[in-house]
Design goal:
By secondary structure, this protein is of the alpha+beta class. Helix content is about 60%, strand content about 15%. The radius of gyration is 30 Å and the shape is elongated.
Length: about 250
């Protein structure tokens, strides 16, 4: 044979005769390659990983804990050297898996609500000056970003349901589902302006309530039109004997 690339070797695992390019290199091995072909090595690693998944995960976790600073530095350096590539990959992944990511975040938050709440509370306390400085330096940018974000959100008529008592709170908003987050934030703090809803939340707990969009409307829907639709829905519920948390009907 005229060159090393044309040479072949028999794999000691599968017994097939393959070109040297089908084997991983090994200077100490015969012909400068390992005895198993790449396919057999790959299959062995795959089977080993499946059989020892928990063991491998525990070993990797222990390594990360013992080499935390080293791993952080390595990740930081890799990100700096591949920033554009990683940003493009992350953007594409988020676009292709938007629903999956949203569902994962929702589930993770539900399962780790107290842990996350404590983490964010501690972070805010330890970084109060840093957060304040950032907001001050970027207040125009933040304000403009929020304004633009809210302008593009559709309006809606919504309901907050007590799944246990079946009592309902009817509302309207021009900032779409951000409104639910606003309600939850105030209810968790005990500062919600509707005392009946706050009392029920304190009694039955957050898991007893769900948020439903009754009607999605254009982002340019004006306030008077929203109030009219909100009042109409409240009157409909009252006529059907549904008990509401709302104290007044918009006029």
């Amino acid at each position: 044979m005229s060159s090393a690339e044309e040479q072949t070797k028999e794999c000691s695992k599968c017994g097939q005769e393959k070109p040297l390019s089908g084997f991983h290199k090994d200077k100490s091995g015969r012909l400068g390659v390992v005895s198993w072909c790449k396919v057999c090595v790959s299959e062995y690693k795959k089977q080993y990983h499946q059989k020892n998944k928990d063991k491998i995960a525990a070993r990797q976790k222990q390594y990360r804990q013992e080499n935390r600073d080293k791993e952080l530095e390595r990740s930081k350096q890799y990100y700096q050297e591949n920033r554009d590539k990683m940003l493009e990959y992350a953007k594409q992944y988020q676009q292709e898996n938007r629903d999956k990511i949203t569902e994962y975040k929702k589930q993770y938050y539900q399962e780790n609500r107290e842990k996350m709440s404590e983490y964010y509370k501690q972070y805010r306390q330890e970084n109060r000056d840093k957060i304040s400085a950032y907001r001050h330096e970027n207040r125009d940018k933040i304000s403009e970003g929020m304004k633009q974000y809210c302008q593009n959100l559709p309006s809606m008529i919504y309901e907050i349901h007590n799944t246990i008592t079946k009592q309902i709170y009817v509302g309207q908003t021009s900032v779409y589902k951000r409104r639910w987050n606003s309600h939850k934030s105030k209810l968790r703090k005990g500062t919600h302006p509707n005392p009946q809803l706050q009392k029920a939340w304190d009694k039955w707990g957050e898991d007893a309530f769900c948020f439903d969009v009754v009607e999605e409307l254009p982002c340019d829907f004006n306030k008077e039109q929203l109030l009219e639709k909100e009042a109409a829905l409240m009157l409909e519920h009252i006529s059907n004997g549904v008990k509401l948390y709302n104290e007044d009907i918009p006029k």
